[in-house]
Amino acid sequence: MIKVLIVEDDPMVAEFNKRYLEQIEGFTLVAVARSADVAMVLLKKHEVDLVLLDIFMPGINGLELLAQIRKTGQGVDVMIVSAACDSATIKTALRNGAVDYLIKPFEFERLHAALAQYRNKVLFMRGRDALSQAELDRHVLSREEAEQKDLPKGLDRTTLKLVWETVLSGQGAPFTTEEIANRVGISRVSMRKYLGFLRYIDLISREVVYGAVGRPVYKYRCLRPESEVIKQYL
Question: Were 8 and a residue from 54, 100, 181, 230 both cysteine, which residue would form a disulfide, CB within 3.0 to 4.6 Å?
Answer without folding.
Answer: 54
